[in-house]
# Entry
Amino acid sequence: MKQSQLFTKTRKEAPAGEQSKNAQLLIRAGYIFKEMAGIYSYLPLGLRVLKNIENIIREEMNAVGWVEMQTSTLQNKDTREKTNRRSDEIVDTWFKTELKSWWQLGLSFTNEEAFAHILTDYVSSYKDLPIYLYDFKNIFRNEARAKSGIMRGREFYWKALYSFSKDEAQHQEFYEKMKIAYQNVFTRVGLGDQTFLTFASGGTFSEFSHEFQTLADIWEDTIYLDEVKKIAINKEVFNDEVLYKLGLDKSKLVEKKAVEVWNIFTLADKFSKPLKLTYKDENGADQDVFMGSYGIGISRLLGVIVELLSDGKGIILPDSIAPFKVHLLSLGTDEVVLTETQKIYQELESLWIEVLRDDRDFRAGEKFADSDLIGIPYRILVSPKTLESGKLELKNRKTGEVKMIEFGELRNTFI
Amino acid sequence: MKQSQLFTKTRKEAPAGEQSKNAQLLIRAGYIFKEMAGIYSYLPLGLRVLKNIENIIREEMNAVGWVEMQTSTLQNKDTREKTNRRSDEIVDTWFKTELKSWWQLGLSFTNEEAFAHILTDYVSSYKDLPIYLYDFKNIFRNEARAKSGIMRGREFYWKALYSFSKDEAQHQEFYEKMKIAYQNVFTRVGLGDQTFLTFASGGTFSEFSHEFQTLADIWEDTIYLDEVKKIAINKEVFNDEVLYKLGLDKSKLVEKKAVEVWNIFTLADKFSKPLKLTYKDENGADQDVFMGSYGIGISRLLGVIVELLSDGKGIILPDSIAPFKVHLLSLGTDEVVLTETQKIYQELESLWIEVLRDDRDFRAGEKFADSDLIGIPYRILVSPKTLESGKLELKNRKTGEVKMIEFGELRNTFI
# Structure
């Protein structure tokens, strides 16, 4: 794609009032646009990254047998009344709206009711279970303060997953697969090394809940990590009894600051009972479906990645989610330079490598600064000087390494 | 994919109160779930079709140089006030909601303001134009009555496109490309033969607007079609003067019933002026950006397709948008049948052909009826009888044609 097709421009300053590092960088580089506090539009660069993350998650979920669908955003008040999650006293972050006939309806702020309600039409026997469903959609939460950029927005892009099992044993069996699937996701988006399964406080239905926590000093959760076993305990449940149960040695744990990027809830019959999502078991008796919840915020994940993977010059995105793999810059308007640049562009496109070609008539310094701010993994430079040497200049955004390569080396460099 | 993974089941009857043919069929076949009047969730089959249509449109738009982004669903009241589209008296179908600080905000019911507002940050010179942007998203309209299924919902999946040009000439030049791109879309989704460019009443800014109208006796628009020139006139502007202007001969026109599947609006400065979306022209003078709008409802398009392409047994989807290309059925639990079915399944998957394998332990009659209702283009049957003949039974859902083919012919049949 030509950069001139991309209407966005970089900016030196983030808008006044934007306090979060992730949104500041993403706005300056032209990935997102701030509509209001906690509400962002995704500009072409940002949407490409969201979709890349979405595809990675989709691949990992489909590999474990999940099936995708899409629940409506407008949700029925009746369904919420059954689970006692309608009134402002119970759920104080729900954006609500009205039909003309003055019935109230709400925007999805989570999806347990929507899924359980749909499944009452389809589940009747133990033979129908288990079912694993997910849904990529926008979620709306009326947060009183929204100061974390895209890490905690009033509108955010989310994947909701729910598992529907006949009992706890079937539920648990599946959970082990999910641990691996999620670790795969974190590895593929570039957070694998600093993201750990963490035991946190349970709820009504289980002793522990499970989180994946990503380490960094900037964040506020405290966890205790066993760096060999790669397991952590959230401070909220950290005591000798828990250590004993998990077989962890206190002397081997390191205190770390972290942020939660994913968690699992064992819902059991919390939603299936009020919504009458039941099935006939092998003996013909009615049983409540046993539910689990495994949501992950796509925009939150991008926010975490940007907070962690950036430097003073801008964003540094991993290959797997970057909007393009190569940023192709040419300097000057010399005919030979433009011809060579076009040749490289066509070569890369023919190899199915995604290229952003900076075809703008800007000064070299501006082009370099923009390229560093946007943070595409590889920058290729074509100039009268590089042409003189018969080579191209290749720069790695992450390591800063610069080397000269020949045109013929493009294929091996990127494939 | 195995059909047992698909939690949905077909049903003999549509829910009481559902009047539209499209929603009746789609609910019965398990493509959609009705949340409330005019609000539907997309079940796995339905989501696959929506995404197929979306991808066709995306390819055609990208080919003409459009760029994709995604505006937020929650929209600022201030922006709407500037264009005088906030109050219920002006826009009576807007779902509105509230922030805690009691500012009102709205859900997107159309996107002119959102796009124009974002572009004020990025457009300053004539060199920045033209810009062509689109956005796939859910749109919300508080329709007093919602009786047309997914053809006119309260929540629907839409692609908004807006062009931003420096003047009418630049705008018009682009419009010719859009006519071709949209005709490509209609052809690819199976409506090409009965969909025609139609002249309709203009607005403040142009003599005519342009629609694509799809023919069928069941619909209520009346158009006059020149079947040779493949151009039509909407009844609302049909008079001798217009005929003369368009160079059409009254005696060669045929009156037809039709439904609008797409239209274009020349917006000119209607939104750019109040939102101050201006640019400096070649002489340094401020000019309003000249806008055009080209939206298309994805769910509406699917509704039209289902209304048109169905028979007494169920839905008949074109190859290009069907959720799967092949429905693979086996009869009985005979070991040889199951092994042969698995072999065919693997062969088709290795050829990248999307297959739904009916692995359910159902009677033959039920499997056949479900297959016809769901309407996947090709059905392959494996049974003790077909195995005896050493062949497979291949049925074309659209023509009803049945023929016996050999395993070795699978590749040539589908590729």
Q: What stands out?
A: The mean pLDDT of chain A is 90. Chain A has two domains: 3-311, 326-414.
